[in-house]
Structures are given as structure tokens and as C-alpha cells.
Amino acid sequence: MKVVHTSDWHLGQQFYEHSRFAEHQAFLDWLCQELVLVEADLLIVSGDIYHTATPPAAAEQQLYTFIKHAKIALPNLHIVIVAGNHDSANRIETAKPLLYQFDTHVIGRFDKHKPEDVVKSLMTSSGKINVIAMPFLRSADISHLDSDESGYGLAVEQAYQSAYACIEDENLAVIAMGHLHAKGGDISSDSERNITIGGFDSIHADVFGDVPDYVALGHLHKAQKVANNDCIRYCGTPMPMSFAERHYKHQVLLVEFEGSRVKSVSPRYVPRYKEIILLPEKGGATLAQLCDAIEALELPTEDEPKPYLRLRLNANETDSQFRHKIEQALENKAVHFCGIERVSPQMQQGDELLFEDLGKVSELAPKTLLELAYKEQIDAQSTLPSALEKCLEEVLVSLSEQGKS
């Protein structure tokens, strides 16, 4: 049996106010061809189908058109989709009756009183398989949370165990889906929205237990194994969601089963539709250096997609005409311009930069913003105190609960 694992499509995303519709369409067209090429039996999408809870109609149409085309190309294909933290559970659930006619199973929320709803026993062309289609677990979806980290992990573990108990044929292979931050996962802090429930934003991989033969995770944008386990995986995003992700090897994962066991897990690399350029790659540059670098850019022809370009300007640059001069340098350049970062060298630690461009602030995680403010206002050499971090978590949880009331 051949299973393709993907996640975090973020359909409808605007990248620095530039539409990504064409990029997403290129990915979906490629994915449809790839499913045919590998003769896939099952496609699983582990959350964050959309970038917001209220995606544009064009983004929803993209999803439904993809499903239609995939089923035309592979009539026996099954598809399982779960909601992520960016998705609206209600919106995902609304289309359930219609999508079921296309062998597409969608789960928007977990009902702790009906855990059997997330258990999908599917008959594919290569045999039967059990899928635990666990969506992003909101605080209301799981049992009471204790005030410590083990209590949160236990609540998530109980959700999975209650679903496992509903499996009827235990001899079949089991895939457990999830949309969460497993401990040790490498995050891209300026594009992944922190998942904070009960004050804790990550859980230990042990919560999945010994039942699943493969754990298909979403949320982290970098493809990676969890706890060095070949069968607990994040597939990552199919395209960069921020400039921090420009060097990621974006992929979907092909999981091949032999009987009820995983035979192999291999990446299928997604072609990059648009390049992402950061000038300079590290640190900042003077205005003159940036203008020279812009002039030296080797850009695609008119028939090729324009790359995204973002500039890093030294914070001590004093030329008040810098924006006008950069605009002149960019004139007639085939790029999608994504703004200027003012870089303070004294605030750099490796590649971690202080972003003074207010347009970037909304894309930073709250903890990242607090860390930057602490270093700038309090102590540039020390790490964020745990007490201050805990205070932020309590505020975020309170705001989240108020938003649901």
C-alpha cells in the first residue's frame, strides 16, 4: 500500500500582500501528477489546509477542484483531511457529506464523547487500513487539563487512546494523524503560529503510544523525524511560508506498507515555483551595497514567475532618501518586493535578527516578539526569564479563551 503524507498547504495565504494562488495551483497540479506516478492508494493531509479560518472562496475552490481532479486521475484513491490550528473546524466539517461522495474523509474537531468519529477504516485497492484522523486538539476538545505539562500531555494521550480503543480490526496497519508541536521539533518561529493550550505548546512523542505503525504530523514547516523515529514524521510545508524557510527542502512523504508494517518512507521533493531572495543572505548591508546587489540580480524572463525579494539594510544607515533610492534601483526589475528589514548588528545572534520593519511584526510569534523586546529594553546578553515567559503564556491562554466565549 502506498500512502502520501502532506500538510500545511495554507491555501489563500498572502505573502507580504502578494497572492500565492498560482504557487498553490502549481503545487496541487504537481501533487495530482505525483499521486498518479507513485500509484497512491491514500492521501493524508495533516491540517492547515487554509491559511485562515475564513479563507477566500478561490482557496476553497482550489481544494475542491484538486479533489475532483485527483479522483478522476485515480478513481480508487482515498483522501483523509484533518483541520489544523489555522483552519475553522466548522468550515472543514461543512463539506463533509459532499466530499464523502469522492472518498474524501474530513474531520474538523475531536468529540471526546464520540472518539469513534476520528477512526476511519478504509478499503483501498491494496487492502484495508485504519486511520486515526485526529485534528488539532483545542482546549474544549480534550479532558480537563492539570496545571502542569504532564497533565496536558496526558490529556492528548487519552484522546489518542480513546480513539485506538474504537479500532475494530487490530491486525490492520494504523496511521495516526495529528496537528501539534511534538517536543524536539525544529520550528520556523516567524511563520508557525504557536499552539498554546494550558500554557504548554509542545508534547512528548510518547503520547502516540505503540498502536500506530506511522504517525503523520502537521504544524511544523520543516520536514523532519520526531524523537529520531523514522515512523513519526512531519512532512513540512510544500513551499516556503516565510523567508526563514527559503532553504528548506519542501516535500511530501511517500509511505509504503508491506502488510501491516511500514516498508519505507521516502521524500518526494516539491518543485520550487517561485524563488525567494534575501539580500544579503546574512547580516545587513549599506544602501550602496544593496543598490549594487539589486543591479547584479539575475532575474527570470518575462515568461517565468517573478521571485520574492526582501532587503536587509543596516539600522545605522542615515540616508533619509533610502526608500526612494531603493525604489529607483528596483525600477523595471521583475520581482515581487517584500519590504526592507532594518538590521541592528548588535542585536544579531547568528541569524537571529531584530526586525524593525513594522510590516513584519504581525508575522512574528508572541514569544519571539517578547524575546526581542527583552533583549532591546532589558538585557541583550540574557535569555528570556522563565517567569516572564510563563506570564506571557497565561495571557495568551486567557485571550484565547475569551475569544471562544
Automatic annotation (TrEMBL):
SbcCD cleaves DNA hairpin structures. These structures can inhibit DNA replication and are intermediates in certain DNA recombination reactions. The complex acts as a 3'->5' double strand exonuclease that can open hairpins. It also has a 5' single-strand endonuclease activity. GO terms for biological process: DNA recombination; DNA replication. The gene is sbcD. Keywords: DNA recombination, DNA replication, Endonuclease, Exonuclease, Hydrolase, Nuclease. Signal peptide: none annotated. Pfam families: Metallophos, SbcD_C. Heterodimer of SbcC and SbcD. Belongs to the SbcD family. Residues 277-377 form the Nuclease SbcCD subunit D C-terminal domain. The keyword Hydrolase applies. InterPro entries: Calcineurin-like_PHP, DNA_Repair-Maintenance_Comp, Metallo-depent_PP-like, Mre11_N, SbcD, SbcD_C. This is Nuclease SbcCD subunit D. It comes from the Bacteria. Residues 1-222 form the Calcineurin-like phosphoesterase domain.
